[in-house]
Each structure stands twice: as C-alpha cells, then as structure tokens.
Amino acid sequence: MTWIDWTIVGLYVASAIGIGAWFTRKASQGTANFFVAGRSLGWFVAGTSIVATTFAADTPVFVSAMSRTEGISANWFWWSVLIGQVATATIFARLWRRSEVITDVEFVQLRYGPGPITKLLRVFKSFFQGVFVNCVVMAAVTLAMVKITTVLLGIQPEHTWIVLLVLGLVGLLYSAMSGLYGVVYTDMVQFSLAMIGSIGLAVLAYIDASSGEGMMAKLAASSDFKPELLEFFPRYDEISWPLFTFIVYIMVLWWASAPGKGYSVQRLLATKSERDAKLAFLWYAFLHYVMRPWPWIVVGILSLIYFPQVEDSEHVFPLMIDHFLPTGLKGIMVAAMLAAFMSTIDTHLNWGASYLVNDVYEPYIKPNATPRHYVWIARFTMVFIMAAAIVATTLIPDILSAFKFIAVFFAGIGTVMIARWFWWRVNARTELASLIATVLLGSIVLVFLQDTEKDLFGLRVLVMAFGVSAIWIPVAFLTSKQPSKAAIAFHNKMQIGGTGWNAISTVPAELTAGIYEWIIVMALLLCILLGTGKLLFHEWLVGGILIGCAGILLVPFLAILRRARIS
C-alpha cells in the first residue's frame, strides 16, 4: 500500500461522511424518511443498493475460498437462491410496494390485524431479525475484514480490530445522520469501486495464468488442483452426497428467499412505485448473478496456481489482491473492501433499528411521540446493535458456517412466508406455530445432524422445510374456519386474487403472468451465468450454446421490460 492507495481509501471515507451530512436534515423528518427514504428511490438506485449490500467484505472472501476448496459446483449454495429471488422480482416486489408498510415485520399487522398473537409475532420477529440475525451477519462481515486487513495491510490481528472499530464507527456515524438516504447513495460509490477492483483483479490474474503454457496446464500442475473443481454440477451418474445436496438446493433452499425479506424488502418499500420496485429487483438479480460471480470464482480457482498450499483458504482473495494489483488499483480494491464492510454495517444498523423502533418502540412502548423523537431513538438503537455485533464477532467460527446457520433457520419458515400472500387461511397463529416449530426443530437438527465426514447442510434444510410445513398447515386448517375481518381487509387492499382467495372474492389472479415472467427471467440469467463460466474455462461449445439460448430468451424478456415500463 502506497500513499496513493491510502489517499483513495481516505477519499472514500470522507465522501461517505459527506453524503451522510448532506442528507441529515431530510432523514430527520420522520421514520418514513429515516427508514425508507421517503419512498423516493428510483429502480436503479434501489437495485444497486441491494447488490452493493450483498457485496459485503465476506462475500468475495468466502466465494473464492469455497470455489478453491469445494469447486465451482459448490456455488449452487447461493446460485440456487436465484430461483427464489427472480420470483421476488416478478411476483412479490410489486406486492411489497403496494402494502405500504415500513418494514417486512410490520406486514404481520397488515395481514393479520391487531391482537395479542400479532403483537407477540411482531415483537419476537423484530428482536430475532433485528438483533440476532443482524449480529450474525455483521459478525461474519467483520471476520472477513480481519482476514483482508491482516493480509493486505500487514497489520496484526489484535491491531486489526482497532481499524475495524474505526470503520464501524464511521459507518455508524453517517448512517445515524442520514438514515437510508446516506446508506443507498454511499452504496452507489461502494459498488462502483468494488466492481472495478474485482473485475480488474480477475482480468489480471486470468491474463497472467493464460500466458506461457496456458491456464489449464498451469492448473493441472498445481499440487492442490483436482479436475472435479471445474465441474459446474455434482456428478449425476452416481448417487452421492454432493448430488443430494445439490437437489435440495434446487428444489427447496430457495423457498425462503422467494417472498423477499430484510433489507432487500426495505429497498423495495423505499421505491417510488410498484414499477420501480419490480425493476429494482430485476436489476439486482442481473448484477448479482450475471456480473459479479465469475471475478470471485476465477480468482479462487486461479489462486491454486499462485498459492497452492494455504492454511486458511479464506485468505486467498486478499493474497491475490496483494499479488496482482498495482498501485492505484490496489487502493481502489482496498477502498472497495473497506467500503463493502461499511456498506453492510450501515444497512444492517438502519434495518435493525427500523424493526426495534417501527415495530416495538413506536406501537407498543411510546406511541404518538413526535417524528424527531423516533428518529433519535433509532440513532441510539443503532449504537446498541453495533455493540451487540462486536460481541457476536467473537462467537463466529467462520463465514460459511454463519450463512448456513441462518439458511437452515429460514428454510423452516419459507413456505408459510409464501402462503400468507396467497391463502386466506394463514393467520397469526399459523405463523407463530411455524416459528415455534422452527426453533424447536432447528435445535434438534443442530444437535442430532452435526457434520462429520459429510456436510449435512442439505439434509438439515430438507428436514426443516418439510417438518415445519407439516406443523403449520394443519394449524391453518384448524384455526381458520372462515375468512377473518383482517384477511378480508388485506385482500381488499392488495387485490392479489387467485384460488387461495376465492372464499372472499374471485378477483383475477396476478400470479399467472408472474410465473411466466419468473420462468423466462430465471432461464435467461442461468444461461448467461453458466455460459459465461463455460467460456472462461474453455468449454467453447457448451458455452456458446448457452449464450445463444440467452440471446433467444432476450426477446420475451424485453417484452417483460416493456410491460413493466407502461404498467
């Protein structure tokens, strides 16, 4: 790191604080401004902000490490979520914006109406998602930054914590000043830096590896390289545990992501219109699954050439940065990693505070206070969440374990989260039963299905998804004999229609068109994703066919975009 690199880092930090100061007055006007930016975001800003937040410091670290050790096919752990997130874009995004809630937790009040069960649900989910899940994610991000700064800056781990504390406080400062406004507009800067650095790193490594005897020959000569690392799918000509896990990913894991949740829903709720919400998530899905994956995967695979024996595979991404990037570009990449850290921290602080203030403090502790009062409580709440996250960081063993822990929990409640939009029988007792079943069954799964020589993550997801569904579905039939006033009011507002609402009204369903768009967009993104990878690793025929299929699918996709523009 030279003075030029440090200057780039310093300019980013200064710009983040400046953006925070710029939006302070606007954010202080009330919780709608502080948490959903006054519902003023266009699709480009909202979608880019979502993808910038998912570009946390931990993401390139664990994707490159996973690709290096388990192979390209291991990325189906997160590629499979594309299936659910395209459903979010084509089916649920407009519905979320139509609901006009401030948080996804507030949705339970809209869907189920007031009452003690609704209150219990709202408070429990606020603390679980706003504090517990938040802190696990923030801890994973912090753990990644420890590894990055240790390698790139040459700082000992005990001193790294000082650097991260300062960065975390900067993120806390500007997000507390400007609310979601500051978060989304610093995200724009962060994503630009991150993509320039990641693509630059991958291109330099790819060109260097392709010189001389060629990339494939150099990989084959690496002591840690195995040909199966370049397989895009587990072997399907034999029954194996990786194949079973892959099937669970494709068939089950995405259920929990389909209806949307957390900070991604927060961005949808902050958009100007239903059209902007839909386009924002389509834009996010394109960036997340088409533009970003291959730079990280290429860096992870090619690290086998340059660092064949590494004790901790989660160090390879920063090692490749240090090895390849020249002065200036290294500064951009380090700034991007620091920015990614702050971007995730600021989002989770704002998002977590939105639950505790909007869904606990304002409705149940001190209603009817002034808007500025709630904004100040939100700022103090962010400090509390930050402190809790620092404690959680000491308890996380590694990044991938943290993500798998969260995925197992949400696998249990995924089906009820979808059904509550489309079936009148789902009520507050139903969702509460699914949460209780998730906690109990999840505890049993963690105790009795521990990883030994096999990774049992897929089995845990399967048990949770079907086990919890087997509990909440009978509860729905037993507790909903006829449509409640809350279900009728929800239907009248949302006008979703479909078979599940026929007991109330026969409004034409929006779901049919959404499913058609879901299939088209999903096929298009998968063709580009897999076709690009095949070409990168010299499988010219298959790669060319997939890209050709993507070209054909562009025709119905452009028609979808035209309909979105005029709707």
List the SSEs and their pairings.
Layout: H1 3-22, H2 24-27, H3 31-36, H4 43-54, H5 58-70, H6 76-79, H7 81-99, H8 107-112, H9 116-152, H10 157-210, H11 215-221, H12 241-251, H13 262-269, H14 274-291, H15 293-306, H16 316-324, H17 329-365, H18 371-393, H19 399-422, H20 428-448, H21 457-479, H22 485-494, H23 511-536, H24 540-566
Helix pairs in contact: 1-10, 1-17, 4-10, 4-13, 4-14, 5-9, 5-15, 7-14, 7-23, 9-10, 9-16, 9-17, 9-18, 9-19, 9-20, 10-15, 10-17, 10-18, 11-15, 12-21, 13-14, 14-23, 17-18, 19-20, 19-21, 20-21, 23-24
Brief characterization of the structure:
This protein is mainly alpha-helical and 567 residues long. It has helices at residues 3-22, 24-27, 31-36, 43-54, 58-70, 76-79, 81-99, 107-112, 116-152, 157-210, 215-221, 241-251, 262-269, 274-291, 293-306, 316-324, 329-365, 371-393, 399-422, 428-448, 457-479, 485-494, 511-536, 540-566. The protein is globular.
